[in-house]
Structures are given as C-alpha cells and as structure tokens.
Amino acid sequence: MSPVQPAIVARIPRLCVALGLAAACATALAAGAPADTPAKPKTAKELLDASSPSEWRTPDPQDILYMQLPAGRVVIELAPRFAPQHVANIRALARGHYWDGLSIYRSQDNFVVQFGDPTEDEKQRKSIGTARAHLPAEFTRDAAGLPFDALPDSDGWAPEIGFSEGFPAARDPAAGRAWMAHCYGTLGAGRDVAADSSNGTELYVVDGQSPRALDRNITVVGRVLKGMELLSVLPRGPDPMGFYEKPEQRTPILSVALASDVPVAQRTLLQVLRTDTQLFAQLVEMRRNRRDEWYKVPAGHIDLCNVTVPVRTPPASSTAP
How far is CA 161 from the centre of its chain? Predict the structure, then answer.
C-alpha cells in the first residue's frame, strides 16, 4: 500500500480491502476531501483577492482631503450626505489653504487628536477666507432616501446600526433620523457649548476606544481612509485634555488640500469596498463568528465600530480618477 496518512487508512471501506483495492481507495480518499470533513473556509484576504471590480467604489476626489504631515499623508473621506454645509465649508477652507502651517495641537490618550488654529485671542486667529463663519448644527439628518446597510446585531447607542456608503452610521426608524457614529478614524467638527458653534475650522479624529456618547452631540464630517498610524502614534499631551503646553510640542501641518485640486499623478488612489455587497456581508459574518482554529467560542455578535471597511490601492488593471 502506498504511504498515506493514518486518518485516511482508517476510512478505507472494507469492500476495498476485500477486493484488494485498498491502495487505490486510499489514494482516492487522500486526493479528495472526505465527505464528513467540511471544506476549510476562505480567509478574508482570499475573499478580497477574488473580489470583482464592481464590489469596490472610488471616492469622489472632491470628497477627499490630503493632510500632509512631516511623517506622511493622511487621507480623509468627507461625508456630504451627513453634513453638507460643514463639508462645503471644509472644501472652501482647504482651497483657501486655511490649515497650511497650522498644527495638531491636542492628543488625548484613548480619545482624539485635534487640529486647527490654537490661538487664544480671536483677533489673532487665521482668516477663514470665503468660508462661512457660522453654520447650523448637523448632528443628524433625515433617514429617508439614505442608503443604509444594517448590521444584524443590537446596539446600546441606537435602535439600528450599519453603514451608509462606507461610513459607520446609526438610525432611529421611529424618529426618522440617521447619523454618523464615532468609531476609530471618525472625523468630527469641534464646537463650543452652543450646538451651532462649529464651522469646520477645528477638526478632530478619534484615535481611541469609540466615544459613542458623542453621537448626535457633534457634527461628524468624515473618516480617515489611510494614515491613521501617523495620528495614533503622536505623543500624548500632558494636559488632562491632551493639549500641548508648548508650541514646539505640536505636530506641524504642512498642507491640507482636496484631492480634486491635486494633479492626478500626485494623488493617493484608493478604493473602498461597497457595504451593499454580499462580499461585505460575508466579511461581517466572519468577524461575528470566527471559525478559524484559534477561536474556541464564536462571539455571535459584533459592535458597529469593530467592523472594518476594507480600503485598497486599485489594481493595475483598474482605473481611478
């Protein structure tokens, strides 16, 4: 008999032995997956590698911000469906080079990094150019007509949770309202006590455990697609709120620009997996119920902010603006 695994030998039918065909039967068993052994599930990477171009979307360059730091580029996607007036202001600020030469002046442990103009004296603050000085609060929006790919699990912060065109979101069907959630990488517009005291000049990025209590209390304007590692490693400010005590402790911002204003050859071309696809649903289920051998007890549940929406560099065969 040809050398085969003991487990294969144990499954050789008695009829094969009786007919002197044990070796042939063992070879056949070894070559094919036994009927009682489930096929090994594909990994997330294998599923993504086999994806089709239609399962990915290319963000509009008008909705992409490039924040250039000394250590590299942070790529941010804006969310005009959720905060149209703030996004319009941010576009105007970027085109007016508002953030160029300013800094990241706050890094609070397990919370956020914040950037803008830290000048205490309002008279000394940088001019906002053509941007509007005052905007209404855009904490929530009408849920009607908003694409929403719901997750199957319950949430302590909202009646329903899911994704809207790649952005983590929540909604309340009874109230007919929807909003973006504060997950890792979320970009929000800092404000004062008044609900309508933000205009997009002061922005923050969540780089800690998801502070969902901020949902519906502040205007969320987008999320980081690439470059979070450049923000999450910044030294924490010594102040209890993470503000740096000295200007030299701040991280300088070399520039902030819209991708649409950057030559194509200088853009960071990215694609985002569509959240309305069966592939995305498969990836969510894989994270809800881990079936690989390391996990002994599948959770059967997943939080909104534990779901990662894949982002990739477009394959050479595809085109992107």
Answer: 15
Average pLDDT for residues 237-263, to the nearest whole number? 96
What are the structure tokens assigned to 8, written together? 């294969």
DSSP H helices, the chain, are 6-10, 14-18, 22-31, 44-49, 84-95, 228-232, 278-288
Question: Can you give the pLDDT at residue 41?
Answer: 77
- The domain spanning residue 206 has which CATH number? 2.40.100.10
Higher model confidence: residue 221 or residue 6? 221
CA distance 21 to 31: 16
Domain extent at residue 26: 1-39
The last residue of one of the domains, among 243, 262, 281, is 262
Quote the pLDDT of residue 213.
98
* 155 closest CA partner among 308, 307, 311: 307
Give the whole-angstrom CA distance, residue 57 versus residue 226. 15
